[in-house]
């Protein structure tokens, strides 16, 4: 299945200065992200330090699948995050878990 790099940006409802764990709906967001990892959809992910961006590496059949799956995230629903870019990604160095 193809790999994609997703850049999410923090939205207007993200409270700068608060840790991730203190943002609204943290538990529901974290639970969904953990589920997407367990399903093999999200391979790697985390905030890009010094920016308002979050990087996800996912396995998906299409950008539409990515959009549909992330639309379920409480943070996307409430405007804490939004998808900025979805880019096909080719891994050239190293390896990812299958």
Could you give a quick summary of the protein structure above?
By secondary structure, the chain is α+β, with helices and mostly antiparallel strands. The protein is 26% helix and 31% strand.
Task: Explain this structure.
With 98 residues, the protein is α+β, with helices and mostly antiparallel strands. It has one domain: Alpha-Beta Plaits (2-Layer Sandwich). Helix content is 26%, strand content 31%. It is built from three helices and four strands, in the order E-H-E-E-H-H-E. The chain has a four-stranded antiparallel beta sheet with strand order 2-3-1-4. The longest helix has 13 residues, at 26-38. 13% of the residues are buried.
- Mean pLDDT reading: 95
Overall CATH class? Alpha Beta
* CATH homologous superfamily annotation: Dimeric alpha+beta barrel
Pick out the low-confidence regions: none
CATH topology: Alpha-Beta Plaits
Identify the strand order in the major beta sheet.
2-3-1-4
Query: What is the percentage of strand-forming residues?
Result: 25-35%
Radius of gyration: 13 Å
How far do the termini sit from each other?
10 Å
Let me know the number of strands.
4
Number of structural units classed as domains: 1
Counting DSSP H or I runs of 4 or more residues, the number of helices is 3
What oligomeric assembly is this protein in? single chain
Task: State the secondary-structure class.
Answer: alpha+beta
Shape: globular
CATH architecture: 2-Layer Sandwich
Give the topology string: H per helix, E per strand.
EHEEHHE
Assign a percent range to the helix content: 25-40%
């Amino acid at each position: 299945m193809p790999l994609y790099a997703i850049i999410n940006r923090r939205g207007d409802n993200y409270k700068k200065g608060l840790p991730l764990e203190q943002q609204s709906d943290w538990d529901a967001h974290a639970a969904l992200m953990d589920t997407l990892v367990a399903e093999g959809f999200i391979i790697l992910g985390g905030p890009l330090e010094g920016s308002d961006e979050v990087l996800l590496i996912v396995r998906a059949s299409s950008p539409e699948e990515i959009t549909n799956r992330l639309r379920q995230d409480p943070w996307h629903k409430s405007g804490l995050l939004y998808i900025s870019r979805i880019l096909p990604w080719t891994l050239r160095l190293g390896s990812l878990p299958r």
